[in-house]
Amino acid sequence: MARGSARRAGVPGSGIQGRRPERSGPRLGPEARAPAQAGSRLPGSHPRASGAWLPSGARARPASLAGVGVAGEGVESPGSCLLPEARPSPAVAPARVAESPDARRPLPTAWQHPFLNVFRHFRVDEWKRSAKQGDVAVVTDKTLKGAVYRIRGSVSAANYIQLPGSSTQSLGLTGRYLYVLFRPLPGKHFVIHLDVSTKDNQVIRVSFSNLFKEFKSTATWLQFPLVLETRTPQRDLVGLAPSRARWTCLQLDLQDILLVYLNRCYGHLKSIRLCASLLVRNLYTSDLCFEPAISGAQWAKLPVTPMPREMAFPVPKGESWHDRYIHVRFPSDSLKVPSKLIEKSCSPPEAVLLGPGPQPLPCPVASSKPVRFSVSPVVQTPSPTASGRAPLAPRPFLEVSLSQERSDASNVDGPGFHSLEPWAHVEASDVHTAAAGTHVLTHESAEVPVVRTGSCEGFLPDPVLRLKGVIGFGGHSTRQALWTPDGAAVVYPCHAVIVVLLVDTGEQRFFLGHTDKVSALALDGSSSLLASAQARAPSVMRLWDFQTGQCLCLFRSPVHVVCSLSFSDSGALLCGVGKDHHGRTMVVAWGTGQVGLGGEVVVLAKAHTDFDVQAFRVTFFDETRMASCGQGSVRLWRLRGGALRSCPVDLGEHHTLQFTDLAFKQAQDGRLEPLAAMLFVCSRSGHILEIDCQRMVVRHARRLLPTRTPGGRHPQKQTFSSGPGIAISSLSISPAMCAVGSEDGFLRLWPLDFSSVLLEAEHEGPVSSVCVSPDGLRVLSATSSGHLGFLDTLSRVYHMLARSHTAPVLALAMEQRRGQLATVSQDRTVRIWDLATLQQLYDFTSSEEAPCAVTFHPTRPTFFCGFSSGAVRSFSLEAAEVPVEHTCHRGAITGLTATPDGRLLFSSCSEGSLAQYSCADPHWHVLRVAADMVCPDAPASPSALAVSRDGHLLAFVGPSRCTVTVTDSASLDELLRVDIGTLDLASSRLDSAMAVCFGPAALGHLLVSTSSNRVVVLDAVSGRIIRELPGVHPEPCPSLTLSEDARFLLIAAGRTIKVWDYTTQASPGPQVYIGHSEPVQAVAFSPDQQQVLSAGDAVFLWDVLATTESNQSFPVAPQACEAGSGIGPLEDASSRASELPQQQVPKPSQASLPRLGICARPPEGGDGVRDTRNSGAPRTTCLASYKAFTPARVSCSPHSAKGTCLPPASGGWLRLKAVVGYSGNGRANMVWRPDTGFFAYTCGRLVVVEDLHSGAQQHWSGHSAEVSTLALSHSAQVLASASGCSSTTAHCQIRIWDVSGGLCQHLISHHSTTVLALAFSPDDRLLVTLGDHDGRTLALWGTTTYDLVSSTRLPEPVHGVAFNPWDAGELTCVGQGTVTFRLLQQRGADISLQVRREPVPEAVGAGELTSLCYGAPPLLYCGTSSGQVCVWDTRAGRCFLSWEADDGGIGLLLFSGSRLVSGSSVGQLRLWAVGAVSELRCKGSGARSSSVFMEHELVLDGAVVSASFDDSVDMGVVGTTAGTLWFVSWAEGTSTRLISGHRSKVNEVVFGPGEAHCATCSEDGSVRVWALASMELVIQFQVLNQSCLCLAWSPPCCGRPEQQRLAAGYGDGSLRIFSVSRTAMELKMHPHPVALTAVAFSTDGQTVLSGDKDGLVAVSHPRTGTTFRVLSDHQGAPISTICVTCKECEDLGVEGTDLWLAASGDQRVSVWASDWLRNRCDLVDWLSFPMPATTETQGHLPPSLAAFCPWDGALLMYVGPGVYKEVIIYNLCQKQVVEKIPLPFFAMSLSLSPGSYLLAVGFAGLHRPPGCSSPPPATRSWCGRSLAAEMQQGLWCWASRLVTSGTWTQAWQRSQAVNGLMLGQARIHVNCLEQAVVNLAT
Known about the structure:
By secondary structure, the chain is mostly beta strands. About 5% of the residues lie in helices and about 40% in strands. The strands form 32 sheets. Strands 3, 5, 6, 8, 13, 15, 16 and 17 form an eight-stranded mixed sheet that branches. It is flat, with a radius of gyration of 41 Å.
């Protein structure tokens, strides 16, 4: 900023100096006689620069050299088959690479990208750097039509090719994939040895051979059997190569091989040995996953990376690649490493929690069959039944080459995804390399059309951000600023970014790729080549095509740190100067003439010198001559004969000067004058020497001294140097003048004779660099204070180009109305920028204290700033007024934020205090100061405090690092405290919160970034975990933000910016953007959501390329993670949350708010706004839909029987004993009478009547659909129940029950839609029923005969109905904006309704009336959807009082005496004292609610849907949408859980030994142990955010009772072992990469068998957690059943102690005999059943289930989707089916009783039509009646004598699908789709 022309905005006494730099600019010298306005600047604009993005890293790794090296290659597209091979530059000579020691990994990937031809690179044909032994010869292959190497011999170890030739050398190849192109010799064995070095310098040998029989592994050796195609049945010939062996492309993923099998991190490939007998064409390494079958134009429309032409096998025209060749990819996607391993790959192996497993046992099998997606790779191998035994090693985990529409790459973002190797069709100026799941993006060109499919398909556009502008200059040095040769643009560095700025338009173009600050720049004379060097050792240099922005070459300099670069005028020579690793000065000359033609950079010469070099230039007249200057020396250099030599200039008396810069004088006409060339050198003492280059002598020596001009406008200023002269830092020469920049802040223009100053301009800060434009009309200047501009010599106007902070930016804030940006920096300044032009508007400087945080006032031109002293000040941007200052903090300000309406401001400090300010007026003041609220040692962060976007909530980290607190923003009352201090198992430390951020108000999400590198999404009200993004970055994230439409999550991740697709649950991973050289401190979306700002070393402005939609719907919080679905960024939170059992179920109370870990998903039944669909009525929206009954989803069964009917039940085989569960999605579906003790509630289609003292239950069944509501008559003698819709009946059922006898007396129906409410009149003579919002019917029934007496069609949806308790003739309904009073008028037998409608007053609000109850006469209380309670005078028909009773909609009101109970949708239950309301009625509209006060409050686990209290309202029972019934005592202020089933679907139930207990598992992640005698919950093991899908109880023979254990399988592939006696989790292992579907113990309990949805069966030790065998015979279909029994049949022909089976979803059953102690597992039998017709299943297939017969060990029972619906009984000894029992439907579950001859089958559909009679015994079919398909349920029990005859015994109906059965000796347990566990007594 110009010192003389700036208008001060400083404030007296504040210590802050303010300036307006838009009027600033270096002022002109006195000799220039500039006009008065010369000090003003010409504002420049920065229109959008369409800078292209350039992916520069392929995997989720730090943006280091290894990550960006590939971006600099001279290639057009990473997937193009026309790519030239990248060859190593001389800087990394091949010989030196081969000789490097193992401990030193060579320079990564730059010269090895996109692939490396190993044979050509190491010149195998010369045998100098490689070795051969034995019979090795070059032959011509007819198939490939070229020369190949033949290696043959009887002994493989004596005939081989080895690379490199000596074991002391190393290949140093860093490519992830190794491609071996070979063909085995027929009938021979071959061996391939690879020596791979890990990052910790451990050498691992990896061998592949058809000589190996099974997989073996040690700590240093992996042996993989490579099985080729064979039809030879002899066992001893299995490994031999077939007679017609084909050429094979063996693709090895070296990174995944080490991670999966040895848990080590891949470093580089050390050596390769190819042993006889085989033909080998070549070896290649690459970081890209190529598809060998795709080449040429075939790949244009496919999302694959084709094999480069050089690597590809020739395919004759008209033939298929797969018919001629084989592709083997190992490992396949089934063994891809989870994201945790990838992210932790740099940590020691013991830090990765894999334990001894998984230990998959691979056996690569080659294949050439074209298949789609993931199929079994076993091709042309004998079937299991044919072999008669299981192989000792399972079949392969590798992928067959597919001619498919995608290619798989390794997934780095989470298990369960099949990511694609991304590719792009890119212009010549762009390079795109990326790995699956994570894209590291940079920007270089303007046009980059990108095509993405596969896992990235849902995250479009790709990229979503494009760099538009950069605010900043310099970084490492401010001396690097250049003119382009045409003078139209300026090139300068901004930390790690190189910026090209068009001076006339302000448009910016960027060169991105450096990962550290740019230390030197050079541009050749034709604007063709740009050279840049990166700071910090070792220095990495890049050569760019300046016109296109393409990086032509990336190489490492011999100079450790390059400080200066200089091009020759032609661009053929580049010279650099710096320090080597010993600190000596080194000069290097590179030849760059061939780079633009695809050649390499060549080191021509390098030299060391003991003299200091501060500047170095190549002469313009001779490219072999250079000059340098430094401390006490000026030297002339010459390049001759490959050497650099120098000679000093005789300086005479000036030999002690410190020279800083030099420049050559050019002729006026531009001609080269080598003989008359003059060199000008400047020094810090003010000397300028003119040197004759030919004679090497000083011709003139001048010294610039400060002058004084008394009375002048520019008095002498104090210089920045200590000497009397002016310290000159830079000079630049044009043919007519010399520009000099000095440390006194002046730019001076002199004639070449230095007679007088032509022009001068003063800067704010020392001038560090000057450069005269080629036309000599503009002079570019840069200052060490971060200013860049130029002086126009013709107009004498100085133009500011860029300003910058001189230290990292700490925080930023944006103002919406004016489009301004505020930043605070470590340079102690606060600056205001214009977002449109990126120009600085104001800057405020503080010399005594540092600014820490900043935020704008949302509505006024004011910003607030917090300082290190604890002060918080406000600054006005319109008037220079004294700021308001508050010093209520004692420590440095760490957080500062304001509410969106600008009413409140909050600040926090490092001492832990939180302050609240009122900002309603400009003189804002402190409201509250709370100590010990926030974390005291938290660093300052833009995300330290967060206000919800509606302004109601405030969140922060505190009072400790492990907690996040949410308070009310107005009162600072604590609403929620979430403890995230769970143990991070990877680091053995407690997790802590780092930053917080609120999502859109409609979502209610709170995002927390933690120290364990994850982002947890919480519900801001309940604190439950909604989702989780694991491994967002290796370092904690200080800032994060979510866009307004909740589409994109922005995270500051180290030196990168990561963008996540927030709406996609199965996210493909983030997009990663580089450019910052220091950690990003803050990220934010612009107010219009069209741009993104990131601040760190500089401020970057990004354009959001995604189109925003105004009606964008917010994502719905996931209810549960479906088993087997890819969970992407969603991670099992249980790995960090507590996995210990919960013996006591938490009870909500006033002092115990919901916390993290109590609830893992939203309350069920609350589905938000419900869109009703009724063809006969207009659509309406129910704002209080949580009160509306939501029945279970009913649909036609896909497995219903046609032409069959079921006989009626006979006998007493089954009797329902107990039900555990409550339907939380009903409404008023619980009744309790304290005087009689009658207690009833609904569970599915049942009405459960329970004795609260004894726990005995009665079950009233008969409803055809789920029961929606209940009503008890006032006499307590009659109970009415109503159900929802049913597909078998035209109307909903209403059943009238006799309470004393439990019998249904009447069945009535009238409503065509769900019955919403029931109510008896006070005299019990009438019953009113209300239809839901679709039907909108109101019906009256006479209770004498229950005939319909009146029916009314309502004009609008009604939410509640009630009779007047003191007048049986009055009925009241509440709905949308009205209260309707209906008077009953009876004329004879007819009853009519007289209607009176009263609108809701405006004072109550626009919400709907959702509930009602009558109070003391004549009062009526109504609840609204907005949380208000309004009181009506029913006589006058007016509302006279209302008050705000809750935060959510009031769904329930109860009145008794002088008390009112309210229940809301947010789970709050409140007790109000309303005794004074009757007196307020006389005041009319003047009544105030001050006389109403709240006595008690409880917070429950879900929305309140039902309640019953005693007359004094002291105690009652309350039901919630979470499926819980609570006993509430207001006197004690407690709530006790009465009924609580699983929150979601029950997946399995198992019996314990002795059948005293049973265990269940559920989708809610819990495993519960129940006592069978009382059906009470004994133990609960809870895992958050995971679904427990299968369960097994250890057998009784495994030991003493205290050793009983449970094995539970989860959706993330983990298996947990729980100790029942110790109520603790013993072990957690991860044997599967996908969801587990079945689990079983061996008969001795010492082994666990588990199956997953991909068809793999893992065998593990439950005590050590090791997985010692994996069977893949069922691969491709989910395992549905694993059954284990003691082997009793000796005539099966096999040995073993256990007989076990596995059934999979493809109708296959395998039977095995095993002896795990001997590690034996033999196949006994293999059963395959035919698939059903598609018309029979109509969608999802039922499971394939099998079980051994307990009473006959030779029998096996099977049910599944076959041609017929039947039970198949198979005899293992006879190898045939011995019996078939027909079924009415396809079975969904199966169980056999071990103590009695019983078989139980559960169905998804069952219906008994009226009049259906029993079939005759011994029949195989059912009666031929038509069947109406309905999702009802049945349980069928077969006796042993009936198994042979095929007759049925009994059917029992349930309300949901039976998906699991377990028969004990006396009981049958059924688990259903609903949240209930049913106990049936047999």
